[in-house]
Amino acid sequence: MIEKKNYHIMQSFSIKNIPSLKTCILGALEFLSEKKLPNPVKLSCLTSCKTGRESKRIIVVGSGNALVTGKILFNEFDAVFADESNYLSKLKSIPLSSIREAILISASGGKHSIKIAKTLKSKKIKLTLLTNNEKAKAGKYASEIFVFPKQREPYTYNTSTYLSMILGKTRENPQTIYRILKKINIKKDLSKYNAFYIILPERFELLREMFVTKFDELFGPMIVGRVYTAEQTKHAKTLVESKKELFIGLGVDNRVFGIKNNRLNIKLPENIDYGTLMAVGYYVIGNIQEKQKPFFKSNLERYCKKASKIFKEKITPIVE
Predict the structure, then answer these.
(1) Has domain 40-147 been given CATH number 3.40.50.2000?
(2) Which residues does residue 228 pair with via DSSP β-bridges, in sequence order?
């Protein structure tokens, strides 16, 4: 068994001592190591879709990293993927008779997911909701609800939430992932850089958007975060160089891109799956966060007040 030091921090922190993403992902793994996770690819609508006995497609909808999670969960199925901005146009472009079922992914089951769920039901599309909230408001429009476990976290971190869904599919062992993270030794002084470029193995391209979103949420315009695969990086991504940009290879041995002294390669086991690389990416970004000014902490309360007005529901800095 692994220790639960970080998980206990997650249970007791306040707005005055917001933990880093690094602490949060370690706490999530400690928490999930004792949880039995449902397998999202065993939903009732999917077996026939995968085996070809049914020609109808599924539509997977989510906002932000919820949609990225949906792509990771259902990328081998005949599926249409949509977010809060384009789901209506997707529904117009697809004959409703060709849609077998909709799968809505939302950690909170609130905000945009309520309107999306209501719209899907109005079009008589059977809906399954994947969420981490037993009291999800979107749930009243769903025919089936899968509730995944989550730990107490700062708003928008969403480590345990989407990680629990991904591990539900990949069946990776949280304790194994935890030990991989604890072996990572970052010798670079991360405070020296104002830009970071993460290079991913090609097979994990779907994680690009997830990591970029984390840079947006934690640093906004203060720290630049770029994420591409090695093959994508060949296409003029490094035309303009900076001595303050650090190139980080996650399971990639980068000896080409970026200034020679500005390279950090993190070696990983070859047989890892999405859950492991997601955790590694969050762990590395969390290390960066700890070495920079507390941009996230300093703005969290102000943002939640503003977001509450935008979404017309109470959004709290700490998600219990």
Answers:
(1) no
(2) 199
